[in-house]
Design goal:
The protein is about 25% helix and about 50% strand. A hairpin with a 2-residue loop joins strand 1 and strand 2. It is α+β, with helices and mostly antiparallel strands. The radius of gyration is 26 Å and the shape is globular. The protein has an 8-stranded antiparallel β-barrel with strand order 1-3-4-5-6-7-8-9. The chain folds into 2 domains: about 30 residues; about 110 residues, Lipocalin. It is built from 2 helices and 9 strands.
């Protein structure tokens, strides 16, 4: 009788443990995946220059040269500060994320930026986006990488 009772108790514990592990596994499988988004505030941390589609030079951002970008659901605004530059640089417009691309269409900006957007308002980049960092990479008409701006999320 003791043997049967011990066997039943052991069976009960094993079945409870397996059921608990199964539920934990099912919960992990049903957990929502976090959607990557540009929405937020980003600080530029570096530039890459490319030669033959390989990084040939890295320039780190500093307090004397910094850029911040802010994205809402559909709008982008950025500002750039350089101690050595007497010009103000900022821009505002719309953005769209496509298949590994970021397209910004600048409506207006600083005096220097308004001169630039007289020639071109639409800027399309190759986009590499992670949860807390992204790179926007300028590509030439042949698909060769030219330079990248690299950012980290600060909010």
């Amino acid at each position: 009788m003791k043997t049967i009772l011990l066997f039943l108790i052991l069976t009960f514990f094993v079945s409870c443990k397996n059921n608990s592990e199964t539920k934990m596994y099912e919960n992990d499988m049903n957990a929502p995946t976090k959607e990557l988004t540009m929405k937020g505030t980003w600080k530029q941390i570096s530039f890459y220059n490319y030669t033959d589609n390989m990084i040939s030079d890295t320039i780190l951002a500093s307090e004397s040269s910094k850029q911040i970008k802010m994205y809402s659901d559909t709008k982008v605004m950025w500002s750039r500060f350089r101690d050595s530059d007497s010009l103000d640089w900022f821009g505002y417009g719309d953005y769209i994320i496509g298949d590994s691309t970021l397209t910004e269409v600048i409506d207006y900006g600083s005096k220097a930026m308004n001169e630039a957007i007289k020639k071109e308002r639409k800027f399309t980049f190759k986009l590499i986006l992670d949860e807390d960092k992204f790179s926007q990479i300028q590509v030439d008409e042949d698909g060769n990488l030219i330079y990248a701006e690299n950012y980290v999320r600060i909010e």
